[in-house]
Amino acid sequence: MSSKDYQLNLPVPVGGEDLPIPVADAAPQQEQPSDKAFLEWGNLVSQRHVRHLAFDLTQENLWLATGGGILHWKLELNRFVRYTSEHGLPGNSVLAVSVDGMGQVWATHEQFGIYYLKNDTWRPYRILGEVKVSCLTLDSTGRLWAGTASGLYAINTPDRKPAIELPPAGFPPRVMSIVDENDIWLCNAQGVYNYKNASWMRTSDSVQPDVLTLARQGENLWLGTFRGLVRIDLSTNKLHKINTTYPGEVTALAPHPQGVWVACGGQVGLATETGWTPLTEKQFNAPITSLLAGSDHQVWIGTHDGLLRGEKKQIFLHLTDNPPDVIGLASREKSPPTFSSLVQALSVQQFADRSILWIGTAQGLFRYDLFTESWRRYGKLASQDIRAIITSQDQETVWVASWNSGLHSLKQQNELQTAPNISEPILTLTIGSDRYWAIGLDGLYHYKDSALLQVISNKELPVRGWLQAITQAVTDHVWLGTSAGLLLYKTDTKRLIPITGNLGSADVRSLLAINRDELEQVWVGTSQGLYIGNVDNWEPIPELDNRLITALIWDKNNSSLWVGTDKGLFCLLSQGNRWKINEFNIHNSGLGANRVIALAISTGEDKETKLWVGTACGLSCYTY
Length: 624
Hints:
Layout: E1 7-9, E2 29-31, E3 41-44, E4 50-56, E5 61-66, E6 69-74, E7 79-83, E8 94-99, E9 105-109, E10 114-118, E11 121-124, E12 133-138, E13 144-148, E14 151-155, E15 164-166, E16 175-180, E17 183-188, E18 191-196, E19 199-202, E20 211-217, E21 220-225, E22 228-233, E23 238-242, E24 250-256, E25 259-264, E26 267-272, E27 276-278, E28 288-293, E29 299-303, E30 306-311, E31 314-317, E32 343-350, E33 355-361, E34 364-369, E35 375-377, E36 386-391, E37 397-402, E38 406-411, E39 426-431, E40 436-440, E41 443-448, E42 451-457, E43 467-474, E44 477-482, E45 485-490, E46 495-498, E47 508-516, E48 519-526, E49 529-534, E50 537-540, E51 549-555, E52 560-565, E53 568-575, E54 578-584, E55 596-603, E56 609-615, E57 618-623
Parallel strand pairs: 1-38, 2-7
Antiparallel strand pairs: 3-57, 4-5, 5-6, 6-7, 8-9, 9-10, 10-11, 12-13, 13-14, 14-15, 16-17, 17-18, 18-19, 20-21, 21-22, 22-23, 24-25, 25-26, 26-27, 28-29, 29-30, 30-31, 32-33, 33-34, 34-35, 36-37, 37-38, 39-40, 40-41, 41-42, 43-44, 44-45, 45-46, 47-48, 48-49, 49-50, 51-52, 52-53, 53-54, 55-56, ...
């Protein structure tokens, strides 16, 4: 690979995809919710990954459940409102949304619970607790129904227990179609079930358990399967297979006065008793998750890459036109770039007049100017799996480690003279007291005097594990975390010293060494908890026992340690010889997801500190 592959400049070269979107008169405008449940929190997350659609007939508004929260489209006003976890949702990953006949908006999280919207804040429907809901739907009267593994529940109002509780039909329902409590159809992993006369009946053997979705329309029951679309005439119980343009799995159905809108084989069309009419001949690139019939042969189409509107044989993108849903210049030919919500690495580049937050995701590198709140996607690393980012102490160079293509350096003025000689993929990077360190699959490297050289190969490790974490605060001490124990590498003697005791065999996932009161203090995050100490004196933090420690960062201005885990975020505040511990999770904060992957700290002109938290459901920010 030539040195040019590693020599990238700052500021980021601006291409067409990185230009700001021109604001037209008809561009949609964002409205801010009138209230927040967690005032100190905010989230930056894409809402293009649509999972479910709902229409509010009273307001003519569209609601989207996405992997990044809930998006509310006020169609007549061409305005939209974003809701994420700081507005009361238990994390950003929302499975379904529904608006009942009274105009009450309901939603369910991917993992648990039913929530309702009141005064722009999402509140839990506490009566059912943290029940895991698989789908939401309305019956013919507009009443909300929730499908779960423990049964079906009809809910009238947020402050009362369910009006109706029905027993489960085996596995949790994938989709339900309900006329009333005595006329219910659903499909699950076992097949299609009908509830009548106070009992569930499974349909005949001609219907296999490969049904992904269903819809009731008049006397027809439409079934979407892995192998195409099927119509059952309920008056005769006869089954009819529908011939679509592109045979394949049916991922979504929506009732229409003449039949059903169908997403089949990546194409959307209208199926009737007499035939199949595709919306266009074009197939979608992104998976189609949901359909919703509009007026005058209009259909709303939810995909993994945004919302579309189909009408009159044409399909139009219906996007918010601003970051993080849209980054760069919108194009009619292709969907514009979006922020990847799986955040894996963070670093703050502090200049005299501004700060840049570098964000490494599973789908590329992004930079966010904290002063202007402007976004850029780094085109040359688009779709790259970014695992680590560090900023040099002089703030001139940003190092980016990619699982796909190795190590890259982004420098403001001069290009690097020597291309780093390291095999990809790279697992992590760090800045030591006197040099840069990198961990690859084959061992430890250091960068000094314009060269990156291997220091230790995995074969030389005194334990049967592989390197996973590294930190350095003292010139001759480099701490190495492996999957089978903690090691101390002495740079002056080039000795590898295994640490004894509990940490001698621990699965070390994260490390942080700091100089505190002229003494080296080392934090060791393992798959079973957090330890603090040095060389032969280690103490566990009892409150974090049995937690998988995923990220560590020290706030020197507040003498506090932030700890990311698989089940939430913790702040350890130093109070003499003790630690005061505060816990943040999706129940008591605006954290986007409980599993924390990366942490970074920035300080603004107003001296407010911002903690940036990378999760699989977007980037969360806590201001304190």
